[in-house]
Design a protein that fits this description.
Layout (H helix, E strand, L loop, with lengths): L1 H6 L3 H22 L4 H10 L12 H13 L3 H27 L1 H13 L1 H6 L6 H21 L2 H15 L6 H13 L11 H22 L3 H6 L1 H6 L5 H15 L3 H14 L4 H8 L2 H10 L11 H17 L3 H24 L16 H14 L7 E5 L1 H10 L6 E2 L25 E6 L12 E14 L2 E14 L4
Parallel strand pairs: 1-2, 1-3
Antiparallel strand pairs: 3-5, 4-5
Helix pairs in contact: 2-5, 2-6, 3-4, 3-21, 4-5, 5-6, 5-8, 6-18, 8-9, 9-11, 10-16, 15-18, 20-21
Length: 488
């Protein structure tokens, strides 16, 4: 029956069967998988409501807050946020592409992106990239309609989704940039640049994005500077290791076998660039790749920074595979997709097999055991006032807050005079002077400072070693610290 369905031309039915099956698998994983440190960090945003935050704009936090209100502060609620976004993204992508290229290309594009590692991961782990990709795709769809119909409704809807994308992650500026390039390079579209539509779209986007701007104004543009000035300061010299890492990571995230199809699709579209539809998709691919590709030898580019480009690139790859008369490309793409599906399903299964250990690369397991140990120390410390807890490095602090009973306030690097990222805005170290502390650090992010500088007395409580699959994940060092002196 299943094979008969796959051979049929009922792509709507195929699509809903795939979405249902993928969602069921993701929900099972969501129920059992412990939260990743990034998820607990963004969950911690929700414990400190604000217009925006130091690292990122607030949309991911707002969505997490909505689903934790529904399901409680637990791992399922965090993962479900990502699952929900992936469903809406897939539906949006399918409907948009079906109108442009037909349902066959739409279905296989959704399947290809859903099974690529970077998107499969984002369908379980909630980060700002999830809402960014969703609103990026919604913006592409509404902007395309705005250009096609030139109605006020679609220009404003486009502005709404662009603003929401910007309020998810600053990378969305490339969506706006790509849209303006698309208008500028088409002689038949340049007329829009002298009309009100695109500028009303930008105005609507800025209105939605205004809370993030207000937060930055109130905080000396800290977030804007962190994501721009700090990155620029890191670009000191040309580094071949950064360039090699960038190339290797991109192949790993999209897939060793899917990446060639992506590159082939983009190259084919460039050769046929006079086609306005190909121009449209390239405008949402090329600026991202050129910008981050140029930065790659100077700045460490993380795996997810150019993820939006892969959405459009995968579409072009699928389109040209079906348009091609080459059986070689058809067969290659078929086996590449099968291999990608196999790897994705295997990864979902293997993560639950304790005998398979990832060593230091495992950032998921061990946090609940650490929380039990810290709570035990907390109960035994004989302090006049309940000791505060410091998790050195934001991942440790966030996981402790999530796993400890009643989610107590946790502080981070700022109490020892270092950059605490968003934690700098949640606690003023001087308010803790005189209090005792439980200080915890993960050996993967070793603390090189001297605790004696910040406390009158320091005692090491012990080391908690976490193992999985006969491989050591990490050592947690726990200290009892007395009479905090302040960070200065």
């Amino acid at each position: 029956m299943f094979s008969t369905l796959l051979r049929s031309n009922d792509y709507d039915r195929r699509f809903w069967i795939f979405i249902t099956a993928a969602t069921c698998l993701r929900l099972i994983v969501a129920f059992f998988l412990e939260p990743a440190p990034q998820e607990t960090y963004y969950w911690n945003y929700t414990q400190h409501p604000a217009l925006s935050y130091f690292d990122h704009p607030p949309i991911a936090a707002y969505l997490i807050r909505f689903f934790t209100e529904l399901f409680g502060d637990n791992q399922f609620a965090l993962h479900f946020t990502a699952v929900f976004i992936s469903i809406i993204l897939s539906i949006t992508m399918y409907r948009f592409l079906a109108d442009l290229f037909g349902k066959r290309v739409a279905f296989w594009s959704v399947l290809a992106t859903s099974t690529a590692f970077i998107f499969a991961l984002g369908s379980i782990i909630i980060t700002p990239d999830g809402p960014l990709l969703l609103f990026w795709m919604l913006f592409m769809m509404s902007f395309y309609r705005a250009v096609k119909e030139n109605t006020l409704k679609w220009w404003l809807i486009g502005g709404l989704f662009l603003g929401l994308a910007l309020s998810s992650k600053y990378t969305a500026v490339f969506a706006g940039f790509g849209a303006m390039i698309y208008l500028a390079i088409g002689p038949e579209r340049r007329k829009y640049l002298s009309s009100s539509g695109p500028y009303l779209m930008i105005a609507a986007a800025m209105l939605v994005f205004l809370p993030v701007i207000v937060w930055n104004v109130q905080n000396d543009f800290a977030s804007f500077q962190f994501q721009t000035g700090r990155r620029a300061a890191e670009a000191v010299r040309f580094r071949f290791d950064y360039l090699g890492a960038f190339i290797g990571i991109q192949f790993a995230m999209l897939g060793l076998f899917l990446m060639p199809a992506f590159i082939w699709g983009v190259v084919k579209a460039i050769k046929l660039i006079k086609n306005p539809v190909f121009q449209f998709f390239l405008c949402f691919i090329i600026p991202l790749i050129i910008f981050f590709g140029a930065l790659a030898p100077w700045v460490y580019i993380k795996m997810n920074w150019i993820a939006p480009a892969y959405l459009s690139g995968a579409v072009l790859a699928v389109y040209f595979v079906f348009d091609s008369k080459s059986k070689r490309w058809l067969n290659y793409s078929k086996y590449a997709l099968i291999f990608s599906i196999f790897l994705t399903i295997s990864a979902h299964i293997l993560i639950f097999i304790p005998a398979i250990g990832l060593g230091k690369a495992d950032t998921i397991h061990g946090w609940s055991e650490l929380a039990v140990r810290v709570q035990d120390v907390r109960n035994k410390m004989n302090s006049f006032e309940e000791p505060f807890i410091c998790g050195y490095e934001y991942k440790t602090a966030s996981e402790l807050k999530f796993h400890l009973p009643n989610h107590p306030e946790i502080v981070s690097n700022n109490i020892v005079g270092e950059n605490g990222l968003a934690y700098d805005y949640w606690c003023e170290p001087d308010t803790l002077i005189g209090r005792d502390c439980i200080f915890v650090y993960d050996s993967r992010y070793r603390f090189n400072g001297r605790l004696g500088k910040y406390f009158q007395r320091v005692e090491r409580d012990g080391i908690l070693t976490i193992n999985r699959g006969n491989k050591k994940i990490t050592d947690y060092y726990i200290y009892r610290c007395y009479n905090y002196r302040g960070a200065k």
